[in-house]
TrEMBL record:
Positions of the CBM6 domain: 259-325
Keyword annotations of the record: Carbohydrate metabolism, Glycosidase, Hydrolase, Signal
One GO MF term: hydrolase activity, hydrolyzing O-glycosyl compounds
Site (Important for catalytic activity, responsible for pKa modulation of the active site Glu and correct orientation of both the proton donor and substrate) residue list: D125
Protein name as catalogued: Carbohydrate-binding module family 6 protein
PANTHER family: ENDO-1,4-BETA-XYLANASE, PUTATIVE (AFU_ORTHOLOGUE AFUA_2G04480)-RELATED
Species for this entry: Zopfia rhizophila CBS 207.26
Signal peptide: 1-32
Transmembrane segments: none
Matches recorded under Gene3D superfamilies: Galactose-binding domain-like, Glycosyl hydrolase domain, family 43
Family the entry assigns: Belongs to the glycosyl hydrolase 43 family.
Length: 330
């Protein structure tokens, strides 16, 4: 490519080279994030405390949601401003997240741009790349690599950050290991997933979490379960998230006591340890409900009593039930 005015560019490169000549190993810092801007080299670093055995950046005060830690950051100029992407330890969750600060000056001060993490999945070390079409990407991760497409405002991103579940098998508890592929692909509203597998009553179940309940997200997750069958060679099939989940195991007997915390659906109620032993349902307000399903068919109706304080407390309400046709009812 022919450059019509090469000298200004060469002079800027020379100036940068001269600056680099004097850096050597004389800069007291860690995790350098270099940036060339208007012919000058800027290096954003943290530093280790003398005699420390861990990273405790006491003099960082960038993100309002961070506690004492802010690690390897990177500054990117755009839109006439400067954006500082910094790994922080979230003061509420305790996990590592990526925060973003913004300033009108390359030397700061930087202020928290959004008042919350930009992304949070326990990974660190962010950097930004802007392609020839002007699309900005945020990359981060240690030991894994993640990325999202940043929006034009540089403090939000498009798409979702999700994690799939993959696995390997070994001939012993210490390997060697053979990669087997994806168990559950990237789905749902949560950017994380955490699996567990059990066998119960000769049936295999895969537990995981997502953000499928109303208001769900990567920070308000819910547990789900799917039933599956191993492949003939012993490998695990690809399992999709569903809204129905695994089929119910057995039915509820209407002629024996069923605890209130036995439920298929609920709204706004909570459970707690009962002073009389076991678990009770609490924080019940108007409009809240509990539902069960798969109740065995009864030949006659019955009633549900609501009492205050205990099973012998003041009777405050009675719900009369009718027989349900068919094998099971809801």
């Amino acid at each position: 490519m022919r450059v019509s005015k090469p000298w200004p560019m060469l002079r800027r490169i020379t100036a940068v080279s001269k600056a680099l000549l004097f850096l050597g190993a004389l800069l007291d810092g860690v995790d350098p994030g270099p940036l060339v801007y208007n012919g000058r080299v800027y290096i954003y670093t943290g530093h280790d405390e003398n005699g420390s055995t861990n990273f405790n950046m006491r003099d960082w005060r960038l993100c309002s949601l961070a506690n004492t830690n802010a690690w390897a950051g990177q500054v990117t100029p755009r839109n006439g401003k400067f954006y500082y992407y910094v790994p922080i330890r979230h003061s509420t969750t305790g996990g590592m997240a990526i925060g973003v600060g913004v300033s009108d000056s390359i030397t700061g001060p930087f202020r928290d741009a959004i008042g919350r993490p930009l992304v949070e999945n326990g990974q660190i070390d962010p950097t930004v790349f802007i392609d020839d079409n002007g699309q900005a990407y945020l990359y981060w991760g240690n030991p894994d690599l993640w990325y999202v497409k940043l929006n034009q405002d540089m403090i939000s991103y498009s798409g979702s950050l999700t994690k799939d579940i993959r696995y390997s098998t070994g001939t012993s508890p210490t390997g060697p290991w053979t990669y087997r592929g994806v168990i559950m692909p990237k789905q749902g509203k949560s950017f994380t997933n955490h699996p567990g597998i059990i066998d119960f009553n000769n049936t295999s179940y895969f537990f995981y979490h997502n953000g499928a309940l109303p208001g769900g997200s990567g920070y308000t997750r819910s547990v789900a379960v799917e039933r599956f069958v191993y492949n003939s060679d012993g490998t695990i099939p690809t399992i999709q998230m569903s809204t129905g989940g695994a089929p119910q195991v057995g039915t509820l007997n209407p002629y024996v006591r069923q605890e209130a915390e036995t439920m298929a659906w609920s709204s706004d109620v909570e459970t707690e340890v009962c002073s009389e032993g076991g678990i009770d349902v609490s924080y019940i307000n108007n409009g809240d409900y509990i539902k069960v399903k798969g109740v065995a068919s009864a030949t006659s109706g019955g009633k549900i009593e609501l009492r205050l304080g205990s099973v012998t407390g003041t009777l405050v309400g009675t719900c009369t039930t009718c027989p349900v046709s068919g094998a099971t009812g809801t």
